[in-house]
Amino acid sequence: MNKNIDLNNLQNEGVENVPMQERRDFLKMGLAITGIFAGGTLFSAISTFNSAHASDFAKKYPYKPHYSMVMQQHRCIDCERCMEACVATNHVPQVHGAYRTTILEKETPDAVGGKREFIPILCNQCNLPQCTRVCPTKATYKDKTTGIVLMDIKKCIGCLTCQEGCPYNARYFNEHKKAVDKCNFCWDTRLSKGEKDTACAHACPADVRVFGDLSNQEDRVFKIVHQIERPVWVLRPEAGTRPNVFYTKG
Amino acid sequence: MAHHHTTPSLNELVTGVANRLKTAGTGFYLMVFIAAAVVLASAGTGLMAMIKGHEAYYNVYREVPWGVLIATYVFFVVSSTGLCLISSIGHVFGVQDFMPIAKRSVFLSIATILSGFFVIAFEIKLPWRMAIWNVISPNLTSNIWWMGTLYGIYLAFMFAEYIFLLMNKHRPAVICGFSGSVAGIAAHSNLGAVFGLLMGRPYWQGPYMPIYFIASAMMTGCAVILMFHILGYKINKQEMAPDMQRALEVTTKIGILLICVILFFTTWKLIAGAAGQPNGAFPVVQSEVVGHHAFVFWFFEILLGMAGPLVLFILSKGRNLKLMLIASLSMVIGIFVMRFNLVYLGQSLPVYYDLGVNEFKEMLRYSPSVYEWIITAGGFGLTALLFLIGEKVFDGHKVEDH
């Protein structure tokens, strides 16, 4: 059945004799195969090109309201009322590893003066979230109006790729909800009901967590983020997710 | 060469299978029994975890959400892709020497990917939702979506290919084999990209993973082809025909080449993670080479997975079947641990490590629970079970003259 091809005595026919149509077909096949290989990657690259390199505020903060939080880190005393308020408001189960927000502790033994500082963390509601890109079923997505990263729990298959993708350790699997759970700036429990801030910001007695709208130049978060007297930074900028939670101190 | 086989009737086929099963020895049935028992235990454990909640049974946790079950899934789909690619050299791309290994390899590529799916079904928390939402709410930027979808297509092609091979319909088998190879490479590189495109995980991040996964699949393919063919002939107590011996000889040679390729890849991966001490990757490479994970890396991944088999393959000259069997068994163990290392090490550095906070100063540890091990064993049990039954039902995957 097989044609036995004598490879040693094959003549080089040259490419100049290949008909144009055949070349086109070959190229088309190559492109199609490349497309399949690149998978979702090309799609995500295209969406990145559209949103990168915006400099003015309107483009930088495309949501209305563009919810954001600034942590005045130097004011945090680790009283954990924010964590308690979050648990109570959002029904976070009290098991190991389940939290939407927590407070990290950093010690600098050879510092002059104070040697301890506290760093509250939560979902950074990134402008270029990794979690939403990697989710196979769009169970996690960025809300088109507010920019909050939300969960559609019925779609979550529990693959936990979003947990791997998140550079902020902001996600955990909630066995009661049967879905990955995360901070959503209290969208379902407070903001959508007309409240103006999150439970954690509301509970903080030390004014650490300033919550507001970055698209409003009169808002307090906007003013803190855009002053130049005190340093303002984000966590893990190298992950390139353009977070909406900022930190400041001093 | 002309066809000189006649199509047997259904009755003759059934009688043939029944005779082969009847004449099989006690040892064969003991192995089938053990494999089936392991699969049942595994399925029972998996269902229990699924119903009562995985967190009570698995040792994975918030910071290390992927454990040995993900590694096992990766191992089986790597094996399947490798079986498909190496065997396609013969029956798809026409290299005569590789022809005899086609049937058994294609059958095993189906068996191994089914084993992968079996394990992942107990790893994913809510697999039934996947069946619905992957279809009606696809996220085209998600590599895991592409991986799953393309592996589904791959499985369909491999199934069709095997049926055409059984029917001796060469042309449709070649078309399905080629399509299966393309889908397999696409699916498998997307699996690499599931790890490689996570921006917050420097040990994985970059184009290395998809490329490494393909090369590594081909290396694994050589190991499992050698292992299963030599075992198959032992089970069927048959003399190996010269063309089959020749096929295993060339597979060994390609295996030697691919071990060298992966050793080369691994060397540069380590150097890249050490030179200039890059943030995020350096502490991981350090723990891998000289730290708490060093023994696992050097003994299993390097010695059992690659260096030992490399020496044995060279000594065997592709003809000493005993050495080749030992080498390929050693490789399978080493490669399994290699997958575990890849999955675990990428997560071992806490995402807040560089922040220097008390909570995340140390590397994260993970060791599988007994339940995770049982489910893992079930994957191997399923491959063993399908392999054993396949040998009898398909009569040692004999290749017809054509």
TrEMBL record, chain A:
InterPro entries associated with the record: 4Fe4S_Fe-S-bd, 4Fe4S_Fe_S_CS, ET_IronSulfur_Cluster-Binding, TAT_signal
Residue span(s) of domain 4Fe-4S ferredoxin-type: 67-97, 114-145, 147-176
Transmembrane segments: 29-49
Statement: the UniProt record of this protein carries the keyword DNA-binding: no
PROSITE patterns recorded: 4FE4S_FER_1, 4FE4S_FER_2, TAT
Pfam families, per database record: Fer4_11
Listed name of the protein: 4Fe-4S ferredoxin iron-sulfur binding domain protein
Top-level taxonomy: Bacteria, Pseudomonadati, Thermodesulfobacteriota, Desulfuromonadia, Geobacterales
